[in-house]
Amino acid sequence: MKILIVEDEPKTGDYLKQGLVEAGFVVDLLRDGRDGLHHGLTDAYDLAILDVMLPGIDGWAILQGIRKAGKDTPVLFLTARDHVDDRVKGLELGADDYLVKPFAFSELLARVRTLLRRGVKATTPEFLRTADLELDLVRRRVARAGRRIDLTAKEFALLELLLRRQGEVLPRSLIASQVWDMNFDSDTNVIEVAMRRLRVKLGDNFEPKLIRTVRGMGYVLENPDCA
Ligand code: CA
Prior knowledge:
22% strand; Rossmann fold; 227 residues; alpha/beta; 12 strands
């Protein structure tokens, strides 16, 4: 799940980004309104978090630009305390929710999950399944053969990506950009390490395996019963 944050105050922006990355999201943080709108229009986000007062153009103009382009990306506004008019205006312009600064991160995360769940319900099922593996997107739980498996946020994101695109060989570069938001660098073995841990947790070290390594190409998740 990819989130756009447009916030010019460095402390708030960094705090938000770090928290959301730790919660397993891929995050783009921009400080300037125009850059924010550009990314909002050209990139695919599951959610946008917008500050109101920004250099370049303000948060309202970003929201209007995104909606004018026909995008229904959920938008959460960050508004200053006592600016009640801001909230009304935001909702009128098509924002989905707002949060008054300062806020607790846990509160923001709860709002983010609620908004994403709405989007997920409209477009995709709440569960991803293959063979005896089940991933619950709403409760963020994984089970295999009915046994609960505890995954880190990154492992969950990795498994979600593999499941959403089952049967497709996913190159390491794609996994790196979708799960870690980084360009693939051959010096790093972060994907291999995470994949190994994920397989151990899934009990996927023995045949028939769900996740296969395709030498020189990447990884694929397939239902062994159908292969
Ligand atoms: Ca601001």
